[in-house]
Amino acid sequence: MITKRQFVVSMALTAVLTMLAPAAQAADQVVRIGWLRGPNDITLAKSRGTLEKTLAEKGIKVEWAGPFPAAAPAFEALNAGSIDITAGSSTSAIAALAAKIPLVVFAYQKMAPGSEGIVVGKDSSINSIKDLAGKKVAVNRGGTGEYLLMRGLETNGVDAKSVERVYLSPSDSGPSFKQGHVDAWATWDPFLTIAEKAYDGKIIADGGAIRSDNAVVLVASKAFSKTKADQLQLIFDLIKSENAWAVANKAEAGAIWAKEMNVPADLAEKIGQNNAVPTKAVSEADVAQIGKIAEWYAKSGIIPALPDVASGVISLK
């Protein structure tokens, strides 16, 4: 038999738990997104405010972290548990998986040929990839830059040992290229367009000529993908909507990206044309493609061992 005292205590405890529940739920309904200063769907969604608005209607708060200068530091933040979701390239994701960073790729966007390449000064005597023998080329270690250079050298039968790789971050590569400290720069947008238009560069090979299989990918921490699968699917649905808008409005998307990246407005049109391309869920064919690059990375010595790509991918609707 419940005494009056027990009843009062029980009611008081229920009231306290009822008051604490909304706070606990609110704390749980937060997604932390790391954004890169680059032309991708996450940057677009942040600028347009669509992600925050729609998620707020579902009781989910967005906390932004960044901007990150490239994927590598964003992946480090994800590994440290500071963010849940970010963007990068399939090449940088491979390097991260090889480093045992617990991430999963959940979106795939094949890069347009014009959005990556190798650039030299306009007055340079270098006119082809074969001319890079004996030269210095700026690349980001383990990422798109190193992939483009190594892939281009292999495609053109140039011994990789004959070319000096100068490992620099994207922010350091620009000044080094402009000041002539390196002979060439293997890079991607917006840096490629900046190098060509603002630094008077000439592109000796784009992604097509290099035979690049690179892609922009969106990634989440494994923990987030497992514990908040519904939220991840909702975010992916919103990202696909933003991407569809960009594909239909390339000039407007380019203008937004140029503003977010603090690059001259006259570069917006080309950035939009190069980067507003379809984003989709990761297919079996995409997993196979990422796997092929991973095998090539391991064979080329860019990563120490072949990662388990299949375990680093999640299939959403």
Q: How would you describe what is shown here?
A:
Strand 6, helix 6 and strand 7 (164-167) form a beta-alpha-beta unit. Helix 2 (41-48) packs across helix 11 (229-248) and helix 5 (90-98) crosses helix 14 (284-300). Strands 7-6-8-5-9 form a five-stranded mixed β-sheet. A three-stranded antiparallel β-sheet has the order 3-10-4. A two-stranded parallel ribbon has the order 1-2. The protein contains 14 helices and ten strands. It has helices at residues 4-28, 41-48, 50-57, 71-79, 90-98, 144-155, 170-178, 191-197, 207-210, 222-227, 229-248, 250-260, 268-275, 284-300; strands at 30-36, 61-68, 85-89, 103-110, 116-121, 136-139, 164-167, 184-188, 201-206, 215-221. 45% of the residues are buried. It is globular and about 60 Å long. Helix content is 48%, strand content 19%. The chain has 317 residues and is of the alpha/beta class. The protein folds into two domains: 24-111 and 214-312, D-Maltodextrin-Binding Protein, domain 2, CATH 3.40.190; 113-210, Periplasmic binding protein-like II (D-Maltodextrin-Binding Protein, domain 2, 3-Layer(aba) Sandwich).
Low-confidence blocks of residues: 6-27
Please compute the radius of gyration using only Cα atoms: 23 Å
**What is the fold-level CATH name, i.e. the topology of the largest domain?**
D-Maltodextrin-Binding Protein, domain 2
Helix/strand structural class: alpha/beta
The number of domains is 2
Order of helices and strands: HEHHEHEHEEEHEHEHEHEHHHHH
Number of strands: 10
Q: Assign the CATH superfamily of the largest domain.
A: Periplasmic binding protein-like II
